[in-house]
Design a protein that fits this description.
The chain has 178 residues and is α/β, with parallel strands linked by helices. It has 6 helices and 8 strands. The strands form 2 sheets. The protein has a 6-stranded mixed sheet, with helices on both faces. A two-stranded antiparallel ribbon has the order 5-6. A hairpin with a 2-residue loop joins strand 5 and strand 6.
């Protein structure tokens, strides 16, 4: 869901191509196809199982809008090369860090590099809350767009809903019912 929300908030849609590694979980691809964009598979490095940066560059076309590197098994992708590709080709770098919570690249934490980084809190991840995820980015306008879209467009703060501190409130009663 984090990947879907991130790609959507950056305007990825029909006719756009998104480069992804050939080795990834189906959710990475589902996030792209749910937006009617086209996943374009790139090769992976046999030693790291991460994207082969040279192959990423070869697959970029005028329809490419994003690259989704997957930091596999806690191993970080070559972020210097990927950020260079993103800047040179004007494509987003949307990091799938589902396997990389706490990982570093050249001493910096994953989540501090690309245009946006998506983490997963699925039950099999290092940090879990049963389900869910987190999105990290440094673009306040896109972050606000994500906040509006995160709960099916409901833009009221969840905590205020439960404390009855909002502009409206449903009062449900069982009076008259047994």
């Amino acid at each position: 869901t984090a990947l879907h929300l991130a790609l959507d908030a950056f305007g990825i849609g029909k006719g756009d191509e998104v480069i992804v590694p050939s080795l990834t979980f189906c959710a990475t691809i589902q996030a792209i196809t749910m937006l009617h964009a086209t996943p374009v598979f790139c090769e992976i490095s046999p030693t790291t199982l991460n994207v082969d940066v040279e192959d990423v560059q070869k697959r970029i076309t005028d329809k490419t809008k994003a690259v989704v590197p997957v930091h596999y098994c806690g191993n970080s992708c070559d972020m210097d090369a990927l950020l260079d590709i993103g800047e040179k080709n004007k494509v987003l770098i949307v990091e799938d860090a589902a396997h990389a919570f706490g990982s570093k690249y050249k001493g910096r934490k994953i989540g501090s590099f690309g245009d946006v980084t998506c983490f997963s809190f699925d039950p099999i991840k290092n940090i879990t809350c049963g389900e869910g995820g987190a999105i990290v980015l440094d673009d306040h306008h896109v972050a606000e767009e994500m906040r509006r879209k995160r709960i099916l467009g409901i833009d009221k703060d969840t905590w205020h809903r439960y404390r009855d501190e909002r502009s409206w409130f449903y009062e449900v009663t069982t009076q008259g019912y047994r």
